[in-house]
């Protein structure tokens, strides 16, 4: 690990896997999902999807022979093709995830990355932020890992929100 340069894909992968084993992804996911259903972007998206589905279903006459699975898949494809989910999820991420990145997620990620890169050298007192303008020889590794993680967590949350 010491021989890997900052930003090396193998190092980043090791750090991300370590963050996963520490349960950070699950914790962040739970924190964000707990807030989703109260945000205007989610409520707006839910209403838009509900209206879209209702309008589509109003054009169909129910019968016992109606292929519900085919109809469901057709509606799912139409919703995906409409682009409303993509836009809505971006807004949800902006309202739920973005406000938490710098104040909640980043400090926890930095702590775990620091512990991963220097096991046993962490003190009870939190060190200065890694993103300071002061240049430190070893600060680029946690910063790179944190940047990659933040991109990754944003993508993961986008994927999670698609399943709501």
UniProtKB/TrEMBL annotation:
Domain of life according to the entry: Eukaryota
Positions of the BOD1/SHG1 domain: 15-110
Protein keywords: Chromosome
UniProt-listed Pfam families: COMPASS-Shg1 (PF05205)
Subcellular location: Chromosome
Main subcellular location of this protein, as a coarse class: nucleus
CC terms in the record's Gene Ontology section: chromosome
InterPro entries assigned to the protein according to its UniProt record, in alphabetical order: BOD1/SHG1_dom (IPR055264), BOD1L1 (IPR043244)
Similarity field: Belongs to the BOD1 family.
Protein's name according to its UniProt entry: BOD1/SHG1 domain-containing protein
Species of origin: Pundamilia nyererei
């Amino acid at each position: 690990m010491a021989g890997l340069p900052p930003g090396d894909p193998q190092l980043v992968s090791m750090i991300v896997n370590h963050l996963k084993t520490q349960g950070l992804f699950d914790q962040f996911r739970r924190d964000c999902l707990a807030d989703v259903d109260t945000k205007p972007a989610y409520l707006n998206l839910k209403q838009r999807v509900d209206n879209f589905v209702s309008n589509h279903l109003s054009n169909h006459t129910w019968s016992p022979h109606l292929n519900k699975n085919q109809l469901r898949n057709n509606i799912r494809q139409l919703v995906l093709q409409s682009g409303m989910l993509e836009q809505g999820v971006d807004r949800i991420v902006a309202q739920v995830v973005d406000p938490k990145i710098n104040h909640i997620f980043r400090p926890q990620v930095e702590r775990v990355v620091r512990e991963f890169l220097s096991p046993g050298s962490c003190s009870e007192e939190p060190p200065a932020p890694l993103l300071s303008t002061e240049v430190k020889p070893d600060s680029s590794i946690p910063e790179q890992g944190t940047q990659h993680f933040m991109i990754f967590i944003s993508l993961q949350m986008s994927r999670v929100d698609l399943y709501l």
